[in-house]
Structure formats: structure tokens, C-alpha cells
Design a protein that fits this description.
Layout lengths: L10 H7 L11 E6 L3 E7 L19 H19 L8 E13 L8 E12 L2 E10 L2 E14 L3
Antiparallel strand pairs: 1-2, 2-4, 3-6, 4-5, 5-6
């Protein structure tokens, strides 16, 4: 008998830990995570994504800012899970910084975006992460991301 030691999350669990919904939910499954350390997730890129209608009709490419957003959403899931909290009407984790963003190759319909985020430090409520995205084992993007929990103005 084999025991699966990975911590995974299906879409229903992800929806409990992210405030995003269609068409802006960009995490389909969490493959593994360790609280306070790392999270690995996937985004299945479909031709039916609404952004492909205009980016670009002759050669559909996932916009780089949405790849960054998918990585940022992965950081949000990890932050909420680590803090043993869920999105609510009072506060959210906001993306507050992106440094060293690089794009190495396009992401196209049919690709599976494999996202890895690792906590590099937490200072005064600001979470800093090293994030990468790959397709078929090839690096497509990397960035240093920062997020912070903040109250929602009423």
C-alpha cells in the first residue's frame, strides 16, 4: 500500500482559499504545499479562455500579466492556508509588488502551466516569494512577488 504524503487541493478547496472567480480564477489544482514554505499548482490553459479572443486571434498567447497573476494567486492560497484563514468581507491578501519579472517563452492553448511559489521571507506582514512557471519542464516565467493582508475599505 502506497501512502500519498503530498498536500493537495482540488478546485473546491481552492475556491475556499481564493476570492477570485471566473473568468479571473487562474489556479485549477494545487499539487503540493508546505505551510509557510512553498506551493505547487497548475493552470490548464484552454482555447476557451476569454483573453484569447483578442490576444492574439491569429496566434493565441496567454498574456504575461495573467501568468504573473496566476503565480500571485498561488501565493494567496499559500498565505491563506499558512495563516489558517479564508477570504472574507473584511480583509484580503493583495499583490503589492513584482520584481525581476522575466518571460522566456509563450504559453499557448493546450499548455499546462506548472506554478511554483516559495516563501523567501515574511517581514512586517509582507510576504515575499520566488515564483516560477513552467510548461513541459521548460521555464516560461519567473518573478519575485510580494503580497500583504489588508483590510477592505468600507
Amino acid at each position: 500500500m502506497t501512502t500519498n504524503t503530498l498536500n493537495s487541493m482540488d478546485i473546491h478547496q481552492i475556491l475556499q482559499h481564493l476570492p477570485h472567480r471566473y473568468p479571473f480564477l487562474l489556479i485549477d489544482r494545487v499539487l503540493d504545499y508546505k505551510l509557510g514554505e512553498y506551493l505547487t499548482a497548475i493552470k490548464n490553459v484552454s482555447y476557451n479562455e476569454p483573453f484569447f479572443l483578442g490576444h492574439f486571434p491569429h496566434r493565441p498567447v496567454m498574456p504575461g500579466v495573467l501568468i504573473l497573476e496566476a503565480m500571485a494567486q498561488a501565493t494567496g492560497v499559500l498565505a491563506f492556508k499558512t495563516s489558517d484563514a479564508k477570504p472574507d468581507n473584511q480583509s484580503l491578501y493583495y499583490l503589492v509588488g513584482i520584481d525581476n519579472a522575466r518571460f522566456k517563452q509563450p504559453v499557448e492553448p493546450g499548455d499546462q502551466l506548472y506554478i511554483e511559489v516559495k516563501v523567501t521571507r515574511i517581514i512586517r506582514g509582507v510576504w515575499k516569494y520566488a515564483a516560477t512557471s513552467t510548461v513541459d519542464g521548460k521555464l516560461v516565467s519567473s518573478a519575485d512577488l510580494m503580497c500583504m493582508k489588508s483590510d477592505i475599505p468600507s
